[in-house]
Every structure is written in C-alpha cells, then in structure tokens.
Amino acid sequence: MATDTTPRYTVPGLTVEQGGKLIDLLRLRLYALNDLHLTLKHIHWNVVGPHFIAVHEMLDPQVDRVREMADDVAERIAALGGVAKGTPGALVSARTWEDYSIGRGDAIAHLGALDVVYTGVVEDVRKAVTEAGRIDPATEDLLIEQLRDLEQFQWFVRAHLETSGGSLRTSGATTEKSAAERATD
C-alpha cells in the first residue's frame, strides 16, 4: 500500500517519486491556507475600533478566496495520487508556525499583525513556486496564481499601515505582537 506521500500513481509525465515530492510540498501549503482562513475569520470576529467595519468587510472576500485556494491545493494533491489531510490535528502537528497571537483588538493592530502573517505565507509560497517549478509546471502555475492573490491581499492590509511618507508603520517588525504595537503607535 502506498504511503500518504508516495502515491501508487500520479499524473501522466511525472514519476511517482516526483508526485510524492509535490504532495509533500502541497500538503504544507494546504495546512498554511487552512490556518490562514481560520486566522482571517478570527480577526474578522475580534476586530474593534473606528476602522472596524472597513476591516471586517475587507476580510470576508479574503476568507472566501483562501478557502478556494485550499480546495484547489487539496484537489491537486488528490490528482497527484496523494491524500489531502484536512483535519485540525494534521494541521497542528505538521505546522511550523505558532497560533495567531492577538485576541480582541483594534483594527489597525490586527492589520499590523496580519501583515506579518501574510509575509510568512507569501515567502513560503514563493519557495514552493521555485521547488514546484523544478518538477511540474501545472503545480507551479497553481501556486503562482495563489501567490498573486495573497500578495494583493497583503497590499490591501498594508494600505491601512502606510504612512503619508510612504513607509509602513510595521517596518522591521518580526512578530505579530510587535507589528500590532508599531501599527498603533
């Protein structure tokens, strides 16, 4: 019987070993997207302050698109002959990042923290694009499309964090909490 990452079959033109490498790569993307979806909903539910409605309404289309991205990744994993693990336990045991750290908070603070989250996700997708490109243009294309959307979502977030001088209030922040603090200074 095939393992979760070494399929019995894969798409034409790839070896099962190549399919297995792509499955491994995509599985972490699936976990990241599922986590991002939940983080966006958490922010949506816990944002307060004068910018509440703008941020609250900005996030729902992002949530919807991120859920579509996760579905696309899961279906690609299945097409490659793998198992798309969508359970919370699989996500938590495999992820390489911590839970989102801001609870109920000011809209701008949440956006500062979300900028850090998007930076991590975008950087990881860029690495995945490079790795997938060495093996399979179809998987690479899927990830490139998602990268464009994720970068646009980060741009939406950063528009709220940009100063009149054109710099980001969160510049240099490496944690969600430090970014949230800088955003509200």
TrEMBL record:
Residues 25-162 form the Ferritin/DPS domain. It comes from the Bacteria. GO terms for molecular function: ferric iron binding; oxidoreductase activity, acting on metal ions. Pfam families: Ferritin. InterPro entries: DPS_DNA-bd, DPS_DNA-bd_CS, Ferritin-like, Ferritin-like_SF, Ferritin_DPS_dom. Belongs to the Dps family. This is DNA starvation/stationary phase protection protein.
